Amino acid sequence: MKFLGNIIWLIFGGIETAIEYILASLALMITIIGIPFGIQSLKLGMLCLWPFGKKVVRKPTSGCLSTVMNIIWFFVGGIPIALTHIGFGILLYITILGIPFGKQHFKMAHMALTPFGREIIDA
Prior knowledge:
By secondary structure, the protein is mainly alpha-helical.
């Protein structure tokens, strides 16, 4: 079921969203200061490419640096990305068939707000 959900996700917008995240990641990695943010954007892109069967968990080793980076990320890019995912999640929750896809958008919105100090694991 996860495989089928991921294939449907890719066909109906997942690949385009993942490409956007990857291109944004490459743009962020142009400067040395942007490399950590580019890595987090790449992590979001990989989650967006194959979201079913993945789970976002906190790293137990994350420290205060990830908190500072999350604060910067939150105000610079996290809010618009999260609002986009929340909007798509609400639209998908209107139909019964869209509920699993809306749930994935809400998972990505949570990750988009504070990506530092989190990792993506297989569920």
